[in-house]
Specification:
Number of helices: 10
Number of strands: 8
Structural class: alpha/beta
CATH superfamily: Glycoside hydrolase/deacetylase
Low-confidence stretches: 1-22
Largest sheet: 6 strands, parallel
Helix content: 40-55%
Number of domains: 1
Shape: globular
CATH topology: TIM Barrel
Order of helices and strands: HEHEHHEHHEEHHEHEHE
């Protein structure tokens, strides 16, 4: 074999070795969902990405369903591949703090740090920054609202919860989720609860059979014209 051919083969081998791993396929662009025309509902998953997130994403992909993931920065850092996949497959990612403290019980600089560190972690993992904040435990006050406004984010709570963290039972999670489901509803769930992930194929099929289109939170709230620092749904007793 000539020296020239040997050199070319060596170069080719190096190129193959250095080739980057294939990226997740981007979800095909679709026309925006109009929740005035279709019956929408948003499933939201807190505290992740949990270790079962890959299975959950497989289910959502299979049934062409979208969801919103309110992520903790500490788990974004340890499981960045899931976050990258969430974004690539057309799901929405939100900020749920870095280590899940009650924002109403910590100092302002600690709140800012919790939000900023999570914004940075999500951007590093996926290339995007969250546009929505869900305060841990759903706890917020005017101080938290002001800080959310500094980051340009409205705060998103929920219209109903699956209570998956409490029951940890597949049948109970499905039953509760379907009970609280309603048009333009925002449902609280957790992707670290294995039983929620196990129940998801049946939940998604049941919701779709009832005529729901599973969308992101932003699809639901875009008609609300929320400003940074606003909270939705507005909790009882909330002072503007």
């Amino acid at each position: 074999m000539s020296r020239q051919i040997s050199s070319l083969l060596a170069i080719a081998a190096v190129c193959v070795t250095l080739a980057p791993a294939p990226a997740f396929a981007q979800a095909p662009k679709k026309a925006p969902v109009d929740c005035e025309q279709v019956k929408c509902i948003a499933l939201t998953f807190d505290d992740g990405p949990g270790k079962y997130a890959g299975t959950l994403l497989d289910t959502l992909k299979k049934y062409d369903a979208k969801a919103t993931f309110f992520l903790e920065g500490q788990y974004v850092t340890s499981r960045p591949t899931y976050v990258k996949r969430m974004v690539a497959e057309g799901h929405e990612v939100g900020n749920h703090s870095y280590k899940h403290p009650d924002f109403t019980k910590i100092e302002t600089w600690d709140i800012r740090s919790e939000i900023k560190k999570t914004q940075d972690a999500v951007k590093k993992a996926s290339g995007v920054e969250p546009k929505l904040l869900r305060p841990p435990y759903g706890m917020a006050d005017l101080q938290v609202s002001d800080i959310a406004a500094e980051f340009g984010m409205p705060m998103i709570l929920w219209t109903g919860g699956s209570e998956d963290w409490k029951s940890k039972n597949v049948a109970a999670i499905k039953k509760k989720t379907l009970e609280v489901a309603k048009r333009d509803g925002i449902i609280l769930m957790h992707d670290w609860v294995k039983q929620s992930v196990d129940a998801m194929p049946s939940i998604v099929k049941s919701l779709q059979k009832k005529g729901y289109t599973l969308v992101t939170v932003s699809d639901i709230v875009k008609r609300e014209e929320l400003e940074p620092g606003d909270i939705f749904p507005v909790p009882a007793g909330w002072e503007n």
